[in-house]
Fold this sequence. Notes:
It contains 27 helices and 15 strands. The chain is α/β, with parallel strands linked by helices.
Amino acid sequence: MMFELEFEKIHGFSNLFCDFLKRKPFLLGRLRNELELFRTPEIIEKKLKSYTKRKKFLEVILESNSDIELTEQQKENLKILMNENALVVITGQQPAIFGGPLYTLYKSISAIELSRRLKETYPEFDFVPVFWLEDNDHDYQEATQVFLLDKFANPLAPDLKQLTTSDNKRSIADIPIDKAIIDFLEFYLESNNLIAVQPKLASQILNFYKADVILPTPFKKILNLALGNYGMLFLSASLCRKHLAFAEIIQKEIEQVGVSHKIIESANRLIEGMGYHIQAKSFDVNAFYHLNGERVKIQVDKEDQKYKIKDTLLTGQELLRLFEENPANFSPNVLLRPICQDFIVPTVASVLGPSEIGYTTQLPELYEWFSVVMPAIIPRHSITFVPAKFASKLVESGIEFFFQKPETFEKAIYEQNRDQTLLETIDNLEARFKAIFNEMQEVASQIDRTLVASSEAHFSKSFRSFAALKEKIFSRERRKILEQSNSLILLNKYIFPKGTLQERIVATIYPLLLFEAKEFLNKIEGICSRPKDRHYIVVV
Length: 540
C-alpha cells in the first residue's frame, strides 16, 4: 500500500525546490535537469571530452573502498570506472551516526536507479553510482542528531552535549566513536529486543561501533550493508584532500581571492530578484584550513587587509605560500565543495535533497569560472514509511492530517472530538452564573449603593473559582480524548517525529532493524523508479 502527497502540503519545503520540480523557466535556465539528461547525450559527451582526472579518481576511490567487504557488483563497478566511457551518478553527505538520517538511504537508491535508467538509455556508456562521503566537514552536532524510535515512537539519541559545543572544529574524518554512542546503541538494541529479533544485523552493526574507529567508518559500513549489492561505491572527501585530488581548485581560489565570492554574489542577486531565499553564504575565501586537528575558516581582516587563520594574520603571498607548502590541509566550504567534487569525479548527474538544490542554484557561473562541467541536478526521492498496523488509520483519517507537529496534531484531535453537549452545558452554566450575580448586585444596590463595589469583588473571586473548575473539567476531557486517540497520536509521531519529516531525523538502521531489511529495501527501490515531484508514504 502506498500514498502520495504534494510537497506544498508539507511544512518545510522551499518555494525554490517546489518551483524546480515544476520546471519553472528561471530554474531550468540555471540547472540542467532530468528531462535534458535523457533527451540528449550532450552533457555526457561534454563531460567525457573535458575530463582529465580519471587516474587520480581511481586512486582515491580504490582507497576509499579498501576497508569494506566488496560485493561482486561493487568489484565490477570498480573495473568499469577504469573505462574511458564510464561516468558517475553521484550523491552524498556528511557521515553521521547510525547510517545517517533516512534520506541518506533514499538519495542513494535514487542514484542507483538513475544509473540503471541511464544505462538503458545510453548503452554505449557506463554509469556507476558513487556516494561522496563529506568527511572533511566539522559539524559534529549534525552528525550526531540522528534518532532511533522506541515502541512509543519517541525519538532517542545518545547524550553527546559535551562533545557538540560550538568550539569543536575537528573534521569528522578525525573524530573517533565516543563510548556514549556505543553504550546507547547496546542499550537500545537490547531494551527493544532487536538483538533477539534481528540477531545477525544487530550483531553486525554493534561490531561496526568500536572506540578505536573514526566516525565515518561505521556510517560507510552500514550503508554498504544496504547498498553493496546494488554496486554503490564510496568516495572519501578527506582522502581526496590528502591525495591533492582537488588542489588545483583550491589553488585558484587562493590565487584569485574574492573572484568566486563576486561570482556567487552576482548569482545571489538574480535568485533574490526572483523572490527566492539564498541557501548558503559565500565568503571572500570559500575554503578552510586544517590546523592541529581543527578545521579553521579562512577569514579576511579587512582593516589590516590580511587573511586570518585562527590567531595568525597572513598577507596574500603568505597565504599562497602556506597552500604551496601544505596543500593537503585545505578543504572547500559548502559552495566550493561541488566544484571540487565534480572536478575529480566524472559526474554526469548529482542526486540532491531540497537544501542542496537550493545552494546548487547559486553555482552555475562558478562551475564555468573553474572550467568544470556542471552535472544534471536530480532531486532525490522523498519517502515516509509506516508500519502495516497503522494502514487503516491512514485511510480513515487521511494522509495529510498526520503531517503536523505533535502539539498541533493533539490540539486538532481534541477539537474534533470535544463533547459539544458538555461545551453547551458549561456555557449555559457560565451565563446563569453571571446572571445570578447581576441580579444580586441589583438587589444590593437598591439597599445600599456602596455595596456595588463589594458585590463586584465577590463576583471576581467566585468567578475565578468557577473558571478554575471549568478548566479542570476541560483538561480531564482533553486527557480522556487523547488517551482514546492514542493510536492516532502514535502514528503522528512515526510520520512527523519532533515536528519534522521522518526521513530527516530517523536513523537508516531503524527500519532495517524493525522490518526484514531486504523487504524494506525492495519497497524503497520500487518507489525510486517513480516520479520525484511528490512525497511518498509506503506501508511496510
